[in-house]
Design a protein that fits this description.
By secondary structure, this protein is of the alpha/beta class. It has 23 helices and 13 strands. It has a 4-stranded parallel sheet with strand order 6-5-4-11. The protein has a 4-stranded parallel sheet with strand order 7-8-9-10, covered by helices on one side. Strand 5, helix 9 and strand 6 form a beta-alpha-beta unit.
Length: 560
């Protein structure tokens, strides 16, 4: 037996060596962004119709090709845009003197293979430079997961209040037991109101229930409407691009904000990548989203991150998919929402390409709970990383949309969320929330420190919410009747947004003042040094405050 050096023994114990790595295998799609089976870019237009795309005549189009050709590509711009060399388009993306609108004039005419060739010419730093210019909304934002391993609605409410206070503008939950959904969705909505006003909430479920909760006003947005890059995988979900577009229109008709979801690696994971690279297939998903008229996309590999994370240049491909989503003028919730590595260094390396240039939502699911409570299978970051995140913001003067909050404010918000939910449950005739639960959740780190609830009674009550037709207005009335008038008025203002339709604008969020901020009234204006969004003024002063900042004049005094 060959002896092992102490150095090798030490390295073998490093967390990164618990991660999974695999060699490339293009024939099954196990390649990030450079498969020999990817098509070469081409387009041919006759009588205003694309009759050839990426080497394939229209007669051979599958339904993704047809949908993209007919709905996602601007036929008037296609031949002119496709005449440009990929490196020319890449230079337009990187060059601050070329405006975002000029890039969009070109990108709307590019085929999937052409977009792939463009990003293949770019390194990670160049992609980050481009993403800084191409994101839709000027001001970055962030989204969090608020879930419970026990589907405990009291915990979800308290975590939502804290996450809201810390700066997240969207909060998402999901369930271990799907039948718990109505109670947990109500808890998420009530909890968010106890923090900072204007936070939007969603409950990620199968599509029929998710849509019904949205139409009732119990949730405010949706994003778990998945699209895929090959026809067989799309069909495995009993869907087509047209059925997804129809579903999107159902949300839009009720003023409900929504994004599609996709990500590199999904087709490999589902066993039908058609020998194409992960990124090529993801670009097809991006263009299906564009063609469906949806305002945005949750992409960044999402729940498939272990697949690109295992192959060479996989994290580069994840950044490339974020960039392409922004380059075709979609709102981008850029991932960082799924555990993929045991290495803290790799976790941060995966985060920085989105955090540094800024995206519409840097995380599409930062875990606001300890990862053992995260029912989305754990996030790249969780609530134990708050101080690290805030320190990185301060170190680099980069805005990741979060802030340090003194413990007294957090405890007050968590307690108020639990008490408000206690009151709403009482008003709606749902199972009681005890004072003991309120006290426990105020100070708890996770579900392991909370009293157990009567699951059977909760599930009966959850079904009654659906059977009785309870809506967001019933929650407003319950809050008002219980003395939580400010929360009632905030929720009513959020529901009114459904009538205005402003949340359907690309990259829309609500400010704490309950005003819509989107690509319409907060368009990204980056044009090189000295331009675009950068944290300054009151926001920069807020970012400077950390947990243990001390006075320069009196080091014994904490000022954070």
């Amino acid at each position: 037996m060959t002896p092992t050096s102490k150095r090798t023994e030490t390295l073998e114990q490093r967390p990164v060596n618990l991660d999974g790595f695999v060699e490339e295998w293009p024939e099954v799609g196990m390649v990030a962004m450079d498969s020999p089976y990817d098509p070469a870019p081409s387009v041919r237009v006759e009588d205003g119709v694309i009759v050839e795309m990426d080497g394939k005549p229209r007669a051979e189009f599958d339904f993704l090709d047809q949908f993209i050709a007919d709905h996602a590509i601007d036929v008037a711009a296609a031949e002119r845009a496709m005449a440009l060399e990929p490196v020319e388009v890449a230079r337009m993306l990187v060059d601050p003197s070329v405006s975002r609108s000029e890039v969009l004039e070109v990108s709307r005419g590019l085929t999937p293979a052409a977009l792939l060739e463009v990003v293949k010419t770019m390194n990670v730093v160049e992609m980050m430079q481009a993403l800084q210019k191409m994101r839709a909304r000027r001001t970055p934002a962030n989204q969090a997961h608020s879930t419970s391993a026990r589907d405990n609605p009291v915990q979800v409410a308290a975590e939502a209040a804290e996450a809201s206070l810390r700066g997240f503008r969207e909060l998402e939950t999901t369930l271990g037991v799907v039948r718990y959904a109505p109670l947990v969705a109500i808890a998420l909505q009530v909890g968010a109101l106890a923090g900072t006003p204007g936070v939007l909430t969603q409950c990620a479920l199968e599509e029929a229930t998710e849509l019904e909760l949205g139409m009732r006003g119990i949730t405010a947005y949706a994003e778990t409407i998945s699209v895929y890059g090959t026809e067989p995988v799309f069909c495995d979900g009993d869907d087509t691009p047209w059925s997804k577009a129809f579903l999107a229109s159902a949300y839009a008709s009720r003023g409900i904000k929504m994004r599609f979801t996709s990500g590199t690696g999904s087709e490999v994971q589902m066993g039908n990548a058609e020998s194409k690279s992960m990124l090529y297939l993801e670009i097809r998903c991006i263009l299906v989203t564009k063609g469906a008229g949806v305002q945005g996309l949750q992409n960044g590999s999402i729940s498939c991150i272990g697949v690109p994370g295992a192959v060479p240049a996989g994290i580069r491909a994840v950044l490339a998919e974020n960039l392409i989503a922004s380059t075709v003028d979609l709102e981008c919730a850029s991932g960082n929402d799924q555990s993929f590595s045991h290495s803290d260094m790799r976790r941060v390396a995966r985060l920085l390409p989105q955090l540094l240039p800024g995206t519409d939502f840097v995380c599409s699911g930062y875990s606001a709970v300890p990862n053992y409570d995260n029912m989305f299978a754990g996030s790249n970051l969780d609530c134990t990383d708050y101080d690290d995140w805030n320190t990185i913001q301060r170190d680099l003067q980069v805005d990741g949309a979060l802030r340090h909050v003194p413990e007294a404010e957090i405890l007050a918000a968590r307690s108020r969320a639990a008490r408000a939910l206690q009151a709403v449950f009482a008003q709606l005739g749902l199972p009681a929330i005890t004072d003991k639960e309120v006290e426990a959740v105020t100070y708890a780190h996770g579900s392991q420190e909370l009293p157990l609830r009567d699951v059977l009674e909760d599930l009966k009550a959850a079904q009654s919410v659906m059977d009785r037709g309870i809506t967001g207005l019933d929650i407003v009335k319950a809050l008002e009747a219980s003395g939580f008038s400010d929360m009632a008025h905030t929720l009513l203002a959020v529901l009114r947004q459904r009538v205005s339709g402003d949340l359907l604008h690309t990259s829309a969020i609500l400010t704490p003042e309950l005003e819509t901020l989107s690509a319409v009234n907060d368009a990204n204006d980056y044009a090189g040094p000295g331009t675009g969004y950068r944290p300054s003024g009151a926001r920069w002063e807020e970012m400077k405050r950390l947990r243990h900042v001390v006075s320069a004049r009196n080091p014994e005094q904490e000022v954070g």
